[in-house]
Amino acid sequence: MKKELPLLLGFFATIGWYLEFFFAGTFFENWKMFFTTGFRSVAIVTLLVGVVNVLKVNYSRIKYNNDRWFSVYQMLIIIVMIVFALLRGTSPGTPFDAMFTFGFVPLDATVFSLLAFYVASASYRSFKIKSVESAFLLIAAILIMLSKMPLGEAMWSKIPVIGEWIMDGPTSAGKRAILFGAFLGGLTMMIRIAFGLERSHLTE
Amino acid sequence: MEKFINILKKLDRRWIFLMIFLSCIIPFWIPSLFDQEFSTTKETQRVYDIVDGLKENDAVFLDWAFDPTLQAELLPMAEQFLKQCFDKKIRVFIYYPFISAISLGENMLESIKKEEKYSYIENGVDFIHLGYLPIGVDMMMFSMYSDFKSTFGKEGKIFRGIKTFNDIKYLMAFAGSTYPESYILLQRRFGFKMGAGVTAVTGPDFVPYLQTGQLDGMLFGLKGAAEYENLRISKGAEKKLNHRANAGMASLTLSHLVMFLFIGLGNLIYFYDRKHKKN
Predict the structure, then answer these.
(1) Domains in chain B: how many in total?
(2) Which residue from A123, A185, B82, B143 has the fewest beta carbons nearer than 10 Å?
(3) Identity of the residue in B138, B208, B263 whose CB atom sits nearest the CB atom of A127
(4) pTM listed for this prediction
């Protein structure tokens, strides 16, 4: 029963979800809503599990590990933000919002912007014309980049047109092929899960 | 030549980082460094035209699916979209699929309210923050097509006349991932009209949807945001208050040129080595 019940639930959830797309109506909509409400409840619980897990992991690090200051900092931030949110709310002008605006926003944006530096360094070391294919790739990349900046259009008015053609033609064709393959794969996986052929999600 | 090539081979990556850093920073001090004239793509024009074609009191749904990591590209788009809606007295429902996006959106609206022209806008009347729901797009859509207001549990005058999502005229999703595809997949089922504002990296993923007409209008990267700003400026918006994306365009140009330079130097080393190995 430990395995049969989840498989049976998986079968009904998958088939109902799939058929709803083709047979719109109260019966299938209710079917779908039943499982999506369950999903909603699980999502809320997992959020709580996530917070508890972060606190637990960091607590044991502080207790047993020498490198504990990052954990202390993380625990402190989580607790302070929760307390601020509970005491004064999260709307603009509150301490929670100040921490978000002056702490989270610059830090989050900084981490992401580091990508530009690594991309530049990686391009210098590895974006080389080693074959005809890589030559095409490099030329296409440069044309696309030129088409996405004002200087490209200033250099030659046809650059944006060429950039658009690359995006609309070769890029889009490749993307469509990938999408088609991925969705067919998704459909296959759905059938496998529905009929219990795929069980990796049931393992511990 | 060999000496030069050897220097390049041993080039510390920190020099590259410094060049990129300077190429991003310098244009903010000298904004007139590059020619800022550029044409508007048809996708950007389409977004502008759709909003421009809406009537007073119509409603749009804005999906704010980005956090501070992507604000450089997406925040100017969202700002212009909101301002154009407020210019036309269109009601805006703002939904946040990520918790970390909420404060960003709230602060953006507060900053718009500080402009004299938009000082009248009020939460719950002209716009509303619908908050975050821990559910997928498909479930939310089902709920919104059943009862729009109860999906979010919010109150306000803004909900007047909005019973289901059928009463929403346009859906605009701002994201830096393939997240808007979640809406596109449901479009066939529900038949709503939508556009997207995406980063330059994820933009190519959405081109097929533009071609099929599933996406009606798209803002593509920082250039798309700057085009949108220029469209609004050409129709009378004040340049001083609407130049967030245009301010970054010179920086974008110079940093790309530095990238070209390093790609060129990398290839020079490669071809020099190849030639000398043969000899």
Answers:
(1) 2
(2) A185
(3) B263
(4) 0.85
Helix (H, G, I), strand (E, B) or coil at B253: helix
pLDDT digits (tens, 9 = 90+) for A118-140: 988 898 888 889 899 999 999 99
Is the CB of B129 inside 8 Å of chain A's CB atoms? no
Residue A175 token pair: 């993307």
Q: Determine, for residues A154 and B259 on separate chains, whether the beta-carbon distance falls below 8 Å.
A: no
CATH number of the domain bearing residue B220: 3.40.50
**Chains A, B: CB contacts under 8 A, how many?**
153
Q: What's at B163, amino acid-wise?
A: K
Residue with tokens 């019940």: A5
- Same domain for B80 and B158, yes or no, is yes
- Closest-CA residue to B174 (of B123, B209, B225): B225
Task: Tell me, yes or no, if A60 comes closer than 8 A to chain B by beta carbon.
Answer: no
| Nearest-by-CA chain B residue for A158 | B39
pLDDT digits (tens, 9 = 90+) for A57-79: 888 888 887 678 888 998 899 89
Q: Does B77 touch chain A (CB under 8 A)?
A: no
For residue B168, the number of C-alpha atoms closer than 13 Å in the C-beta half-sphere is: 25
- B247 in any annotated domain: no
Q: How many CB atoms lie within 10 A of CB B15?
A: 12
In a domain, B37, yes or no: no
B260 closest CA partner among A116, A166, A160, A141: A141
- Residues B205, B266 within the same domain: no
Q: Is A170 on the interface with B (CB under 8 A)?
A: no
